[in-house]
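During the second year of the project, the team shifted from modelling isolated chains to modelling whole assemblies. The rationale, set out in the original proposal, was that interfaces cannot be judged from single-chain predictions alone. As a representative example for this report, we include one of the complexes processed in the last quarter. Its constituent sequences, exactly as entered into the pipeline, are reproduced here:
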Amino acid sequence: MKKYLLAAIGILFAALAMGQAKKPTIMVVPSDQFCISRGYSMTFDNQGVKQTLPDYKAALQSDPDLRLVITKMGQIMAERGFPLKDLEQELKNIAQESAEMALLTSSSSGSEMAESPIDMLKRTAKADIIMDLDFEVKKKGPQKYIVFNLKGLDAYTSKQVSGVAGAGSPSSAASAELLLEEAVLSHMDNFNGGLMRHFEDMFANGREVKIMIRVWANWGENLESYFTINGDEKELTEHIEDWLYDNTVQGRYSLSDGTENFMKLEQVRIPMMRTDSKGRERAVDTRSFVNDLNKYLRDNLEITSKVYLRGLGEAWLIIGEK
Amino acid sequence: MKLYRFALMAVLAFFVMLPSVNAQSRKERKILYNSQYNYEIEPIGVGQDGTKVFKVWGYGKKVEDAVMNAKEHAVAACIFKGIPGGNGSAPTPPIITEANAEVKHADYFEKFFEVGGKYLQFIAVTTDGEPAGQDRLKIKKGYKVAIYVQVMYDSLRKQLEADGIARRLDSGF
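Output from the structure prediction step:
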């Protein structure tokens, strides 16, 4: 009896674990225009060119309206099954992590943790979908109204996947906070409608990602070199394109640019799920997809490559060595 | 001469076609009033958290029937049509975006919208009482009335998601 019960629990867990695609993370980020126009910015000299960048920390610490809007949006998104990554908390975590990384040493040898310059560069607040937010309380005589602009941007393809914008109705009685809350309540259903269309498209036609193929300078070959697979001699670029055609959803990808040293592949539609060698349904992300290409090149051409992950929706394959 | 004959034919064709284009028979009007797609909605502002407020029209032989029809239209509009923007509120998309959902889930919606059905659970506040003035129009064999409603949009969406009729935003993830 106990055996049957355990088997039933096992099947239930397997069923629950199965069929779940990778969930994108979403974060609200105030737009550059919002930050810079309110003075939440940092200016520095970049080799003689004055450059102004948004200071998110200052914006989040000083602007109560921004915090109100982010909280309200977070509440709505959590209720729809997408708890937002909080930018303020993420920035605090990164600062804390950096401090701990600098101080932490091995208790036996006193060794520091390995960290390359790339590792340091990667320690930034990231999300798969950015909710680029901008709003302004405007005045028309004694009346106030809100101009609200929210864009949902795919962090990897840079495509706008959803967006809402518009002005609320002017009021002389309501406070700016109330008008801001109204603006969020008014626009979020429409914004989520756009997100829903994006997700439906994703499940129907595959996740749209970006892949970059590059070669190490010391490899000795390039993407125009000839290789033979199953008696078919072609340029490496063509072999890669053949593999992409066979493994993308409906053979959809676009080689937007390329030379003998790189291939820039955009609008690559990768499947959401696949069955692994053990027969399990597993979610696919760009890293696992590019890893399969890496394995194909290694098994058929004995080429070693490095997979460099840029996020859920972008990865690089650097051919020649690890 | 040829041109004159052509002009005459064109004028005749215009008069022959005119009634079929403009005239709306009693039967057609009845179909129109009973159409499940004929929701007339006018947003009146931004609702409280999770709700939508708007003015909606309904038809009926008696005013009370027209009011009930308007309530039904209010919920049906949120599900199938969406609410247009206006008076400070942005447009709201329909809860179900799937094409022909009302046909696919006909049995479910027939029960949902039956007299005294579950749809009434999602109407929080209305201007109950008989509409007057411009909100109460006497039409042939009945009334066309407008009521102001507050629909519990989020609760309605959650109900349809729980019943497997609407797709959740995070489904599949």
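DSSP finds nine helices and 15 strands in chain A. Chain A touches chain B at residues 19-24, 79-82, 164, 166, 168-169, 182, 185-187, 189-190, 192-193, 195-197, 199-200, 203, 272 (CB under 8 Å).
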